[in-house]
C-alpha cells in the first residue's frame, strides 16, 4: 500500500472516531450544564431561605456594601460613608451592613476613624461583617496575571461575604465587579455598583499595544513583540469577562466623565449608568478666608493621596527637585517645602513610604520634604489652607477628590493633564482659570515656578475661581445624585 493511501485511511479513521465521539460529548455537555444549573438553583434557594430567616428575625430589609478596605482613608472610603449616611437619613426602616476585611479593629473604631478622617457622623449604627480572606484580593498575592488573580480572589471573597450575611441589596462600592454575579445569581440579591476606576480600560490596552513600559507593563514585555501580543490577547479576554460581570449590575454609578466613557464601552449598559460625582468635603474648607498671600509667606507644596504606586509620588519628588534646580532667590524660596499627605492601607504602603523617603535622600531633598500619614481631618484642613500649591500627579486619575479639596481650601491646584482632573475638575469656571495641568517632571517644575512667580493678586484670582467651581462636588450634590440613582432598587424593598 502506498504511503499516501495509508495516510488517507488513517485520516478517515480519525474522522470517524471524532464523529463517533461528537454525540457523547454533546450529551456530556448537556448533563454538566444541567448539573451546574441545579447547583446554582440549589445554592440560590439556600441563600433565599437564609435571607427570609434573617428578615423574620430582624423585621427589616438590609442593604450591604462590599468594601474590604473600609477602614482606609482614601476617597473611596469617603464615598462609602457618605452613601450610607444618605441612605440612613432617607430610609429609616432599613438596616445597613458593611463587608470589610479589616482585622484587629472593632466596628466602633472603624466608625470613629470615619468621623476623625472625614468629619462624617452616621445617624445610627451599622453592622460589620469581618471577612477573613481579604488576602485573596491583595496584589502582592499575584506577581503575574495580577488582574485575573485579584478578580478570581474577589469571587471567593464575595462568596465568603454572602455565606456570612445575605442582604436584599448589595452595593459594590470598591470596584470588585466579579462579585456582582455572585450576589445576583447565587444570592438572589439586587446589585448596584459605584465604579471609581475600571479594572481594565482601553487606555491600558493602548499602553500594551504601543509597547509602552508604563505601570503594569514590564520592560521585558514591552521590549518583546510576541509577549506584548500575548498580553493584548490576555487583556482583551479579561476585558470581555469584566464587561460580562459588570453588566450584571442593576444600577451603575461612575465617578467621572472619564470613567463613564470606559464603563459604557466595556459594560454596555447605558440605560442603567449615570455619573455621580464623589462627595468632597468642600464645606469644611470654605470657611477659611481667601486673602492675598503677601510677602514673608512660607510657600508649601502639598500633595493629598494614598501611598499607592499609581499616585506617582516619585514624580512629585523629582519635579520638586527640578524646581529647586531652577534657582530662585529670596527667603521665600529657601523656605519652600513639599508635604506628602496620605493614608497607608497596609504594610506594602508603609514600605512604599520608606522607599519614597529613600528617594528624597537620593535627590538631596530629605530636609525639605515632609510625610504626614493618616492625619485627622482638622490637620488636613490646616495643611491645605496654608499651602500655596496643591500637587497631583496620577496619570488618568478617575476623578480626584484630593484635587477638589485643594481647590476648595484655596490652594492653586497643579494636576495631571489626563483623566478626571482634565475633563471634569480643572476646567474654566465662567471663563476664569481654575488651576494648572502638567504631565512630566519638566512641565510640573515649570508650572510650579510660574505659580510661585505670580503676583499675590493673580494667584488670588485663580483661587477664587477654583473655589467657586467646586460647589458641584459637595456632599449635598453627591447625596442627591446617589439617592436618585438608588431609588429604583430601594423601592423594591417596600414590596
TrEMBL record:
Pathway the protein takes part in: Protein modification; protein glycosylation
InterPro entries for this protein: ALG11, ALG11_N, Glyco_trans_1
Keyword Nuclease in record: no
Transmembrane parts of this sequence: 21-47
Domain ALG11 mannosyltransferase N-terminal as annotated: residue spans: 62-267
GO molecular function, a single term: GDP-Man:Man(3)GlcNAc(2)-PP-Dol alpha-1,2-mannosyltransferase activity
Glycosyl transferase family domain location: 300-467
Domain of life: Eukaryota
Topology class, membrane: Single-pass membrane protein
Entries under Pfam families matching the protein: ALG11_N (PF15924), Glycos_transf_1 (PF00534)
Main location: endoplasmic reticulum
Catalytic function, reaction form: an alpha-D-Man-(1->3)-[alpha-D-Man-(1->6)]-beta-D-Man-(1->4)-beta-D-GlcNAc-(1->4)-alpha-D-GlcNAc-diphospho-di-trans,poly-cis-dolichol + 2 GDP-alpha-D-mannose = an alpha-D-Man-(1->2)-alpha-D-Man-(1->2)-alpha-D-Man-(1->3)-[alpha-D-Man-(1->6)]-beta-D-Man-(1->4)-beta-D-GlcNAc-(1->4)-alpha-D-GlcNAc-diphospho-di-trans,poly-cis-dolichol + 2 GDP + 2 H(+)
Subcellular location: Endoplasmic reticulum membrane
Keyword rRNA-binding applies: no
Family: Belongs to the glycosyltransferase group 1 family. Glycosyltransferase 4 subfamily.
Function, as annotated: GDP-Man:Man(3)GlcNAc(2)-PP-Dol alpha-1,2-mannosyltransferase that operates in the biosynthetic pathway of dolichol-linked oligosaccharides, the glycan precursors employed in protein asparagine (N)-glycosylation. The assembly of dolichol-linked oligosaccharides begins on the cytosolic side of the endoplasmic reticulum membrane and finishes in its lumen. The sequential addition of sugars to dolichol pyrophosphate produces dolichol-linked oligosaccharides containing fourteen sugars, including two GlcNAcs, nine mannoses and three glucoses.
Name the UniProt record assigns to this protein: GDP-Man:Man(3)GlcNAc(2)-PP-Dol alpha-1,2-mannosyltransferase
Annotated source species: Megalops atlanticus (Tarpon)
Amino acid at each position: 500500500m502506498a504511503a499516501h493511501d495509508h495516510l488517507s485511511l488513517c485520516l478517515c479513521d480519525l474522522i470517524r472516531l471524532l464523529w463517533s465521539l461528537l454525540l457523547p460529548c454533546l450529551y456530556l455537555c448537556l448533563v454538566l450544564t444541567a448539573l451546574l444549573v441545579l447547583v446554582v438553583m440549589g445554592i440560590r434557594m439556600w441563600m433565599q431561605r437564609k435571607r427570609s430567616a434573617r428578615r423574620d428575625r430582624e423585621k427589616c430589609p438590609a442593604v450591604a456594601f462590599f468594601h474590604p478596605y473600609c477602614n482606609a482613608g482614601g476617597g473611596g472610603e469617603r464615598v462609602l460613608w457618605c452613601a450610607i449616611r444618605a441612605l440612613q437619613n432617607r430610609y429609616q426602616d432599613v438596616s445597613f451592613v458593611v463587608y470589610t476585611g479589616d482585622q484587629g479593629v472593632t466596628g466602633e473604631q472603624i466608625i470613629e476613624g470615619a468621623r476623625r478622617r472625614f468629619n462624617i457622623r452616621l445617624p445610627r449604627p451599622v453592622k460589620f461583617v469581618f471577612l477573613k480572606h481579604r488576602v485573596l484580593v491583595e496584589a502582592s498575592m499575584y506577581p503575574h496575571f495580577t488582574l485575573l488573580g485579584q478578580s478570581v480572589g474577589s469571587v471567593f471573597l464575595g462568596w465568603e461575604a454572602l455565606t456570612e450575611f445575605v442582604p436584599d441589596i448589595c452595593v459594590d462600592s470598591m470596584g470588585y465587579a466579579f462579585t456582582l454575579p455572585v450576589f445576583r445569581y447565587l444570592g438572589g440579591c439586587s446589585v448596584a455598583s459605584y465604579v471609581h476606576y475600571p479594572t481594565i480600560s482601553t487606555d491600558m490596552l493602548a499602553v500594551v499595544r504601543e509597547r509602552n513600559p508604563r505601570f503594569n507593563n514590564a520592560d521585558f514585555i514591552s521590549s518583546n513583540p510576541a509577549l506584548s501580543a500575548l498580553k493584548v490577547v490576555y487583556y482583551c479576554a479579561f476585558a470581555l469577562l469584566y464587561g460580562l460581570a459588570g453588566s450584571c449590575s442593576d444600577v451603575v454609578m461612575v465617578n467621572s466623565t472619564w470613567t463613564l466613557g470606559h464603563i459604557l464601552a466595556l459594560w454596555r449598559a447605558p440605560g442603567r449608568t449615570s455619573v455621580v460625582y464623589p462627595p468632597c468635603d468642600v464645606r469644611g474648607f470654605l470657611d477659611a478666608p481667601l486673602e492675598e498671600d503677601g510677602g514673608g509667606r512660607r510657600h508649601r507644596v502639598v500633595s493629598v493621596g494614598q501611598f499607592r504606586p499609581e499616585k506617582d509620588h516619585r514624580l512629585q519628588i523629582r519635579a520638586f527637585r527640578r524646581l529647586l534646580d531652577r534657582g530662585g532667590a529670596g527667603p521665600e524660596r529657601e523656605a519652600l517645602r513639599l508635604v506628602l499627605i496620605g493614608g497607608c492601607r497596609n504594610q506594602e504602603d508603609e514600605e512604599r513610604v520608606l522607599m519614597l523617603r529613600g528617594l528624597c535622600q537620593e535627590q538631596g531633598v530629605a530636609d525639605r520634604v515632609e510625610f504626614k500619614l493618616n492625619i485627622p481631618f482638622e490637620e488636613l484642613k490646616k495643611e491645605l489652607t496654608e499651602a500655596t500649591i496643591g500637587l497631583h500627579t496620577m496619570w488618568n486619575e478617575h476623578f480626584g477628590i484630593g484635587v477638589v479639596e485643594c481647590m476648595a481650601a484655596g490652594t492653586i491646584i497643579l494636576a495631571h493633564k489626563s483623566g478626571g482632573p482634565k475633563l471634569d475638575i480643572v476646567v474654566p469656571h465662567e471663563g476664569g482659570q481654575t488651576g494648572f495641568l502638567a504631565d512630566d517632571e519638566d512641565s510640573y517644575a515649570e508650572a510650579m515656578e510660574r505659580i510661585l512667580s505670580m503676583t499675590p493678586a493673580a494667584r488670588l484670582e485663580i483661587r477664587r475661581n477654583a473655589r467657586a467651581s467646586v460647589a458641584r462636588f459637595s456632599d449635598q450634590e453627591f447625596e442627591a445624585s446617589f439617592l436618585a440613582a438608588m431609588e429604583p432598587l430601594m423601592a423594591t424593598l417596600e414590596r
